[in-house]
Amino acid sequence: MRATVIHGPHDICIEEVPDPRIQHPADAVVRVVSACICGSDLWAYRGVASRVAGQRIGHEFLGVVEEVGSEVTGFTPGDFVVAPFVWSDGTCDYCRQGLQTSCPHGGFWGEVGSDGGQGEAVRVPYADGTLVELPRDAVTDEKLLPGLLALSDVMSTGHHAAISARVRPGATVAVVGDGAVGLCGVLAARRLGADRIIALGRHRSRTDIARSFGATDVVAERGEAATEAIREMTGGQGAHAVLEAVGTEESMRTAISLTRDGGAVGYVGVPHGGSAGVDIGQMFDRNITLAGGVAPARAYIPELLADVLAGVIDPAPVFDRTIDLDGVPDGYRAMDDRSALKVRITF
Amino acid sequence: MRATVIHGPHDICIEEVPDPRIQHPADAVVRVVSACICGSDLWAYRGVASRVAGQRIGHEFLGVVEEVGSEVTGFTPGDFVVAPFVWSDGTCDYCRQGLQTSCPHGGFWGEVGSDGGQGEAVRVPYADGTLVELPRDAVTDEKLLPGLLALSDVMSTGHHAAISARVRPGATVAVVGDGAVGLCGVLAARRLGADRIIALGRHRSRTDIARSFGATDVVAERGEAATEAIREMTGGQGAHAVLEAVGTEESMRTAISLTRDGGAVGYVGVPHGGSAGVDIGQMFDRNITLAGGVAPARAYIPELLADVLAGVIDPAPVFDRTIDLDGVPDGYRAMDDRSALKVRITF
Question: Where is the Alcohol dehydrogenase-like C-terminal domain (chains A, B) (predicted)?
Answer without folding.
Answer: 180-306
